[in-house]
């Protein structure tokens, strides 16, 4: 699995694979180690075992990892909603690239030359979440990754992932994850070799 994709995201994507759910199509791409292809999460091909699944955030990443596009679900083409799916995918890509900035619905709409109302409606209909919800999730997933580095302070991480203050970050993190950032860091701290030996 791609290192920057957390176990939580992997489980969410794999659940959509099991359900043949198209809600994450265009937001994640699934590489199948046993076949060498990458698909939409909703692909109707045989369900892969979880150990054979790799999750990528873009077609480019899947290709760079050596996977080729599935001829059945055609992940490179817009989904069943056509232009709407393409717009939703463009919004998702913008958020991935600019999540650390002070990004608003108006900013996203201006970059795509559409109205904020239209963008919000299309994105919600296509993905099941709003751009703001996806932006928050993206920031929190990146924060989880950065919390693994003990040299980074919570304040630095908050700023790096786009929160206006450490207190706002801590509130949002606790509400979404169920614990403060420092507690999450402590509970997910890698165990050193010395600690492993002491346990033994």
TrEMBL record:
Its cofactor is Zn(2+). GO terms for biological process: DNA repair; methylation. Gene3D superfamilies: DNA Methylphosphotriester Repair Domain, Homeodomain-like. It comes from the Bacteria. It comes from Cohnella candidum. This is Helix-turn-helix domain-containing protein. Residues 89-187 form the HTH araC/xylS-type domain. Keywords: Activator, DNA damage, DNA repair, DNA-binding, Metal-binding, Methyltransferase, Transcription, Transcription regulation, Transferase, Zinc. One of its GO terms (molecular function) is methyltransferase activity.
């Amino acid at each position: 699995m791609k290192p920057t994709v957390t176990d939580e995201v992997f489980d969410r994507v794999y659940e959509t694979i099991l359900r043949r759910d198209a809600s994450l199509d265009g937001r994640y791409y699934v590489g199948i180690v046993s076949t060498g292809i990458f698909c939409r999460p909703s692909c109707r091909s045989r369900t892969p075992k979880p150990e054979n699944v790799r999750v990528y955030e873009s077609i480019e990443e899947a290709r760079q990892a050596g996977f080729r596009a599935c001829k059945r679900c055609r992940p490179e083409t817009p989904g069943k909603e056509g232009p709407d799916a393409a717009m939703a995918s463009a919004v998702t890509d913008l958020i991935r690239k600019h999540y650390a900035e002070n990004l608003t619905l108006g900013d996203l709409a201006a970059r795509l030359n559409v109205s904020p109302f239209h963008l919000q409606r299309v994105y919600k209909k296509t993905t099941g979440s709003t751009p703001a919800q996806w932006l928050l999730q993206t920031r929190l997933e990146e924060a989880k990754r950065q919390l693994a580095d003990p040299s980074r302070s919570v304040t630095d991480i908050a700023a790096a992932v786009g929160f206006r203050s450490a207190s706002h970050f801590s509130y949002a993190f606790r509400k979404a994850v169920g614990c403060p950032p420092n507690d999450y860091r402590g509970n997910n701290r890698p165990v050193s070799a010395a600690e492993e030996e002491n346990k033994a």
